[in-house]
């Protein structure tokens, strides 16, 4: 049987330099596709589409979807004014990834949101975000580590039952929880929501606030669980 095809959303940057070129580019840190591959899946990168309505067609070709980390979600998406520490909007990416999430939920496609991806999952379900908090980010470009504790009885607790130190780089987090979501992990130090999921569904819907693709210990449990769910759903 062929490996499950796992789609991963990408950045869209206006100016990127490589070799002699300096052009707009869709890109993604290599940790994402390498993690999918280590977990037993095939990785396919999904750059933003000018027609978000095409998300359903894309989702129909996938076995699972990963919404990657990245810039802050534009506060207008959840009815808020921008905080002074909120970053510039990535409107094309917001529109595309929200469409992918909605299509995946409607299709029952296994879905994993990472950092920004978890926040977008919460926004897609009508939730809101804390626009700035301290203590969850290291120096620029350097991942911090802190301990998270899974909530017993959740999907995440079945994947990672014990408290674990995870790589993290974010200054925003879940505030009001979206409809149908439950919290499945908290930061041990301050109680920040570190994972959310949709309980009682036949598929796999999970968002994690940390960055499993940056785990130098190569812990593939979360991604492997997604790939296994994709394989099971495909039959």
Helix content: 25-40%
Q: What fraction strand?
A: 25-35%
Annotation, overall tally of beta strands: 13
Number of helices: 6
Q: Structural class, from secondary structure content?
A: alpha/beta
Quick one: biggest sheet? 9 strands, mixed
The average pLDDT value, as a whole number, equals 93
**Series of secondary-structure elements, N-terminal to C-terminal:** EEEHEHEHEHEEHEEEEEH
Q: Any low-confidence stretches, pLDDT <50, length ≥5? A: none
Oligomeric state of shown chains:
single chain
What's the end-to-end separation, in Å? 10 Å
Overall shape: it is globular
Strand order, largest beta sheet: 4-1-5-6-13-12-11-8-9
| Radius of gyration over C-alpha positions, nearest whole angstrom | 17 Å
Tell me what the structure shows:
The structure is a single chain. This protein has 235 residues and is α/β, with parallel strands linked by helices. The chain contains 6 helices and 13 strands. The protein has helices at 30-38, 55-59, 91-107, 116-124, 155-159, 221-234, and strands spanning 5-9, 11-18, 21-27, 42-46, 64-67, 111-114, 129-130, 144-150, 164-168, 173-174, 182-187, 193-197, 205-208. The strands form 3 sheets. The chain has a 9-stranded mixed beta sheet with strand order 4-1-5-6-13-12-11-8-9, sandwiched between helices. It has a two-stranded antiparallel sheet with strand order 2-3. It is globular, with a radius of gyration of 17 Å. The mean pLDDT is 93.
């Amino acid at each position: 049987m062929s490996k499950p095809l796992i789609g991963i959303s990408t950045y869209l940057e206006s100016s990127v330099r490589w070799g002699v070129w300096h052009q707009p580019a869709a890109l993604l840190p290599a940790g994402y596709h390498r993690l999918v591959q280590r977990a037993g899946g095939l990785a396919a990168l999904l750059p933003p589409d000018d027609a978000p309505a095409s998300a359903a067609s894309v989702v129909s070709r996938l076995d699972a979807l990963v919404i990657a980390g990245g810039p802050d979600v534009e506060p207008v998406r959840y009815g808020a004014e921008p905080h002074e520490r909120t970053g510039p909007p990535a409107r094309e990416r917001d529109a595309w990834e929200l469409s992918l999430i909605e299509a995946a939920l409607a299709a029952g496609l296994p879905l994993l949101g990472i950092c920004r991806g978890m926040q977008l999952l919460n926004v897609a379900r009508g939730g809101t975000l804390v626009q700035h908090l301290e203590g969850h980010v290291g120096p620029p470009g350097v991942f911090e580590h802190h301990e998270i504790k899974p909530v017993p009885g959740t999907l995440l607790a079945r994947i990672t039952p014990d408290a674990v130190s995870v790589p993290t780089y974010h200054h925003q987090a879940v505030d009001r929880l979206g409809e149908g979501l439950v919290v499945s992990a908290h930061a041990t130090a301050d109680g920040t929501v570190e994972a959310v999921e949709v309980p009682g569904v036949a598929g796999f819907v999970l968002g994690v606030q940390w960055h499993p693709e940056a785990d130098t210990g190569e812990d593939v449990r979360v991604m492997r669980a997604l790939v296994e769910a994709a394989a099971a759903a495909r039959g």
